[in-house]
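Hello forum,

I keep getting stuck at the same step: I have a sequence, I want structure tokens, and every attempt I make locally crashes halfway through. Rather than fight my setup again tonight, could one of you with a working pipeline run this one for me? It's a single chain of 228 residues.
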Amino acid sequence: SPCSRPQKVCLCPFLPVHPLKVSTCLYIIQHPAEESRVLRTVPLLAACLPPDKCKILVGRRFNEDRYPELATVCRNPNTLILYPGAEATNLEEVAVMSSSPSVMIIIDGTWSQAKDIFYKNSLFRLPKQVQLKPSISSQYVIRTQPTNTCLSTLECAAVALSIMEKNKSIQETILHPLQALCSFQLQHGAQIHHSKEHLLKNGLYDKPMPKNKRKLRRMELLVNNVKI
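Reply #2:
Ran it on my machine without issues. Output:
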């Protein structure tokens, strides 16, 4: 079945009957560690879109010799990479000025894995860098996020596509199977995972504080609500 899950927790009824019609093509750059995660969101995203609009490349290092198609995509002026930072433009501003079909690259992994992939692959610094406004909280409540506004790959794609396609219903359609996934897991014993930011601010963080000064500083910034 499309969702590849046991019948008891099948998510197929929550997927769109037909793949969504979109003009934007997604390239998901997936860290190899994500392949082994049982509750990853990319398969649900792929099940919502046509195969030619959601292409998944797994790896840590991407160069022009091994990935000529990706290199061509990265050099295309209509290609965007969704990665927040000082160099990134808000996607809403880019979408207003864009009229032609775009390609968007999204890195799938933990924040540290995504950072490693972004900075150690020069190809990913060729496209225009964009980010989402932190206006919604993650609904992926069965996995711990660093901050309250960090989103899963599926959620990032859902929001980005709804902006690029100027169609809010796309976001609702793609989030539907994620909401069902979390509901099933909670019904079968999973616990709601608050963000690390929430746990630290409310004195609920029960793990040993890191000895590494850099990691400790990042946690202090989270508590003080400083953007990192």
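Strands lie at 25-30, 54-58, 79-82, 89-90, 103-108, 128-131. If your local run keeps crashing, start a new thread with the error log.
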